[in-house]
Write a structure and sequence with these properties.
Length: 271
């Protein structure tokens, strides 16, 4: 019998197989650990349900809502506050259905000077801007609203890969029906709002775990629109006194949250 020759390494180690984005490589273990680092959501109930006990630091995650303004941004307020205070990179908004109102966000501790708003002409441009922003490394977080007709499975693959490459947390806000479509998103969450200051979350997909339902999140009072509107009303009174002072009127000005005043004076054109 002919002796078996010892195995020899292939001559061309840089084969096309090694270029596959979904192929795990032992020499990239330290990088993988970094990419799987988590950031607390600041909600204990949600942290318990998520791998790493927090938001992934670089990945594609999807939120499914009935309509824009269903509480999805309130869920992200602590993260937005943290990233805008700790990071020098941009928080990029792509095709938002509304203009982020700087005074309200500043009042919640979010530094809106780190915001970058992109309003593409069409959905193809929106997808291109999303992928380029995610992999650029210049954005710590991206919030995007993309036409469902343009969000194929391959599109989510590209976005997720770009997010890993740029170490960016990319958040896609999608319709409820999209939760039934396949996606490479690392985390998929459906949001409903049973009470004014409460959110109900259904985790449709999570890394290293089964789906979970009916996670109730109680929002702090300062997250309520009523609290923010009260501060804005005070600001308008404050500005009225400054812009149109009345002689002999020594009426004491209302006590105003400094964050609201600062944001209005620095962002008068934001709204």
């Amino acid at each position: 019998m002919k002796p078996i020759s010892p195995l020899r390494p292939t001559k061309n180690i840089e084969s096309p197989l090694l270029e596959k984005a979904n192929l795990w490589k032992a020499n990239e273990l330290s990088k993988e650990k970094k990419l799987h680092q988590s950031i607390t959501t600041s909600f204990a109930e949600l942290d318990k349900a998520l791998p790493g006990h927090g938001w992934p630091s670089s990945a594609l995650i999807e939120f499914f809502v009935f309509s824009a303004g269903s509480g999805e941004l309130k869920l992200l307020v602590p993260l937005l506050s943290l990233l805008t205070q700790k990071e020098e990179r941009w928080i990029t908004w792509i095709n938002p259905p509304f203009i982020p109102y700087a005074p309200s966000l500043n009042a919640l501790g979010i530094n809106t000077s780190k915001f970058l708003l992109i309003h593409p002409k069409n959905q193809d441009e929106a997808l291109w801007a999303l992928e380029q922003s995610a992999k650029s490394g210049a954005c710590s977080m991206i919030l995007a609203w993309i036409n469902e007709n343009k969000l194929s499975f391959k599109a989510t693959q590209r976005i997720h890969r770009a997010s890993k490459q740029g170490e960016t947390l990319t958040c896609l806000f999608r319709s409820l029906s999209a939760s039934e479509q396949p996606s490479t998103a690392e985390l998929r969450i459906q949001i409903s709002k049973p009470e004014i200051n409460q959110l109900c979350l259904d985790i449709k997909k999570r890394r290293q775990g089964w789906p979970l339902s009916n996670i109730l999140i109680n929002l702090p009072d300062e997250f309520s629109s009523q609290a923010v509107q009260q501060q804005l009303a005070l600001w308008r009174t404050f500005r009225e006194h400054l812009d149109h002072p009345i002689k002999g009127n020594n009426k004491k000005l209302p006590k105003l949250d400094r964050a609201v005043y600062k944001s209005h004076t620095n962002n008068t054109a934001a709204h």
